[in-house]
């Protein structure tokens, strides 16, 4: 890394590489930077050079290396449908196109890679094997990535930039490799490689399980079960930050602890609190407005429902609470604010010694007498606010309109159609296939940035160009500002 222009922290700042080292192999998963613009070119080349050096160092140490992921590099011209377009855009020949730094690095790393001219370093031979291309050496259109914005996947207009590579000491361990172009869900498709059950090592066949789980399998037969002693040295469980921590399994296996009733009662007795059992009437504190209007002077308590034995742990006050007295027949003027606050002040029981400071007993809230006092206050407030009488309409104020004096009748159907023409959604134009077009928005910087236009809804064909009299996208293109179609 000392020869690179970027330091290791900068190259690893985007988290584009994951390396897993097992006893049998080293698995590297990468997401290499794409060739977007010149501002990212230095970082891209630096990342690829570091990846190339890391792979070569691991192979030199005798490790079996598997390199997988999105390399964002095209190996040769047959691996992309944009070949001719790129050559025309950049004004390059085919050899110059293959000589770009990224493609040159990949071809020097792969066996059978096409390198124009001499290699950069003759001492660095090809050490990796392109498994999928080895099973399909002449297959064209084996693409793994498509431009979903252009809907280019149905027409298979894309590129092959996802790979499964392995070092040369295990190139013959696989029996099948291919792409899964029919698996949707991303702009990429998976690339897979299937291992053989028995592979050849030093001229003899060995079960692949004996290689990946040495000591646990012999001849493909399990000898013992796995245990924590088999953890790899770099396992996350061995890191001090995660050692002896609870696992996810413990979250579902532990039972919730419920408090014991005996312990709670003993604590209450020790604190000097008494338990009182009182029947609790299930009723609302304030009566409804309709009840007050029908029976303003009726303050008798409602018939209680089935009482429930409620156990309340409370401390009795020093003095028994006084029951507030309400003068019958005296109506107070209506107050707009703090009605409930006045109820609380009048109904709050106070002690004789220190009025206003003694805390009321909880049992006072459950006595019927206190509730009746609140009922009386609510009844008085409802009586003090009589319903406003409807104003008497005078005969002189009523104006009769004759049919001759009416202007005209508005047609709702015609009005709806008129507003729909103004505010309704505009109907899109039809393409050459006779189907409605799709509206797009220009996001490319320039004079037309932000303008919308209509194009054919068909997917882009294999040629990547707009075609005529075919099932693929036609050449229909209309600016939205130029289209004066009807609105729905």
- In CATH, the topology of the largest domain is named Deoxyribonuclease I, Chain A
Total helix count? Answer: 13
Strand content: 15-25%
Mean pLDDT: 74
Strand order of the largest sheet: 1-2-3-7-4
Shape designation: extended
How many strand elements?
A: 18
Name of the CATH first level of the largest domain:
Alpha Beta
Describe the structure.
The record marks 72 as: Transition state stabilizer. Mg(2+) binds at residues 70, 72, 187-188. This is DNA-(apurinic or apyrimidinic site) endonuclease 2. The protein has helices at residues 8-11, 41-60, 83-90, 94-98, 101-109, 131-135, 208-212, 248-253, 261-270, 289-294, 339-347, 368-384, 412-423, and strands spanning 17-21, 26-31, 65-70, 128-130, 145-146, 158-159, 162-167, 174-179, 191-195, 198-201, 204-207, 217-218, 221-222, 274-280, 308-314, 438-441, 452-455, 477-479. The chain is of the alpha+beta class and 488 residues long. The protein has three domains: 8-196, Endonuclease/exonuclease/phosphatase (Deoxyribonuclease I, Chain A); 267-384, no CATH class; 422-482, no CATH class. A hairpin with a 2-residue loop joins strand 12 and strand 13 (221-222). The radius of gyration is 42 Å and the shape is extended.
